[in-house]
């Protein structure tokens, strides 16, 4: 095998899939049987590690893995947990909140949407007023870190408002879980969703839900899709010691298990969060020195991904992107509807030294000519 052919051509400074370690990639170099006991044990170990990472006790919480990208898991939750009388409230301040509304619309789930605008965090007071005004709302769903901008929503305050009013809370923590500390049980979150290829630093292929057992246990027969039935997926995993309901992404699961071991070796989520925060701080400092400005104030900014304004009206993102790619870095286009921005991710196997090297390259490029 010619190893050079398998070396990465660039560092992914994106919100996922992201740059993984060689250890994670090597974990995929074998074939595995999907129903063999050894393999099922790996699935069970992943599930119990996820529960611990969410600061949950196995008596009250469970972890369910599901094939597909992160969106499939959001769709599985939304189409499994509401019964026919249920009504969903979606709190939206970006593309991923909007995607939940599209899912609800497609599945014909009764829902309302509370829009805050892309540049504002979710306001818990407005959520409280909305819930008080509409007792028919049973579930509330929102995004923790809106990857559209990089904004972090006030998780604790929003959950408090929802739980004080005895509604179920669904959190899309796709881009934050593993990279930011979240006490799922302490906050009393009912369903928290994330995927393999974000801050746990695995590769794409499945997502997972960390769910309150009592809540999930009520969801039998509610699913509006067969393959995305989260309840059935849970029961098969639970009753058959880690068996997946249908063919599982065996290589991806092994890579994810290795990624969890590496997360533990790094010092767990607190250590990873510190590294991401340091990455993000150095990125903004270096980019600012090179003439760029960040979209969000520091107080609203997550350590995951940062949006930057185009530096001028005639700035060519495509040329900037190509120049950086040829120098070993892949960045991300913007996703805002109103403003010209691009994004740079600071998660994955990226370290403060990499950020220093990256901002040196940016400042050496004459970006005004891009
Ligand atoms: C990445 C991401 C998703 C899922 O996207 P997929 O492309 O389906 O993996 C959902 N929500 C947020 C906030 C994300 O960052």
TrEMBL record:
<comment type="function">
    <text>Involved in phosphonate degradation.</text>
</comment>
<feature type="domain" description="Aminotransferase class V">
    <location>
        <begin position="58"/>
        <end position="314"/>
    </location>
</feature>
<dbReference type="InterPro" id="IPR024169">
    <property type="entry name" value="SP_NH2Trfase/AEP_transaminase"/>
</dbReference>
<keyword id="KW-0670">Pyruvate</keyword>
<protein>
    <recommendedName>
        <fullName>2-aminoethylphosphonate--pyruvate transaminase</fullName>
        <ecNumber>2.6.1.37</ecNumber>
    </recommendedName>
</protein>
<dbReference type="GO" id="GO:0047304">
    <property type="term" value="F:2-aminoethylphosphonate-pyruvate transaminase activity"/>
</dbReference>
<dbReference type="InterPro" id="IPR015422">
    <property type="entry name" value="PyrdxlP-dep_Trfase_small"/>
</dbReference>
<dbReference type="InterPro" id="IPR015421">
    <property type="entry name" value="PyrdxlP-dep_Trfase_major"/>
</dbReference>
<keyword id="KW-0808">Transferase</keyword>
<feature type="modified residue" description="N6-(pyridoxal phosphate)lysine">
    <location>
        <position position="198"/>
    </location>
</feature>
<dbReference type="InterPro" id="IPR012703">
    <property type="entry name" value="NH2EtPonate_pyrv_transaminase"/>
</dbReference>
<dbReference type="Pfam" id="PF00266">
    <property type="entry name" value="Aminotran_5"/>
</dbReference>
<dbReference type="InterPro" id="IPR000192">
    <property type="entry name" value="Aminotrans_V_dom"/>
</dbReference>
<dbReference type="InterPro" id="IPR015424">
    <property type="entry name" value="PyrdxlP-dep_Trfase"/>
</dbReference>
<comment type="similarity">
    <text>Belongs to the class-V pyridoxal-phosphate-dependent aminotransferase family. PhnW subfamily.</text>
</comment>
<keyword id="KW-0032">Aminotransferase</keyword>
<comment type="subunit">
    <text>Homodimer.</text>
</comment>
<keyword id="KW-0663">Pyridoxal phosphate</keyword>
